[in-house]
Design a protein that fits this description.
Blueprint lengths: L2 H11 L4 H8 L3 H8 L7 H11 L3 H7 L11 H28 L1
Helix pairs in contact: 1-3, 1-5
Length: 104
């Protein structure tokens, strides 16, 4: 699971800088950088703060953070069949959120 990478992907997809996310969450820019780079593992409370600031459910981050190394070997074939579509839906959600931000 690479939740930091997922946070970065969503943040950048929405056009937010680390500084903007820092302002919206109350977390330091350094903490956000460390989370995105895998130096720090965020708590559930921190993930919830980030999700609220980004306007996305935590499920989106968990979906985008899935790594093939997380999948049991006997489930890889199913993962390969299903995950691309699930990821596509998560990406569509983020893109829809970006459009909402542009309208606001």
């Amino acid at each position: 699971m690479n939740i930091g990478s997922a946070i970065k992907q969503v943040r950048e997809g929405l056009g937010y800088s680390q500084e903007k996310l820092s302002d919206k969450t109350g977390l330091s820019q350094t903490s956000i950088s460390q989370i995105e780079n895998g130096v720090k593992t965020p708590s559930k409370k921190t993930i919830d703060k980030i999700c609220k600031a980004l306007g996305v459910p935590a499920d989106i981050l968990y979906i985008l953070g899935i790594d093939v190394a997380d999948i049991p070997k006997n489930k890889i074939k199913l993962y390969d069949q299903v995950y691309p579509k699930i990821k596509e839906l998560a990406d569509l959600f983020v893109n829809h959120r970006k459009k909402d931000l542009l309208v606001d």
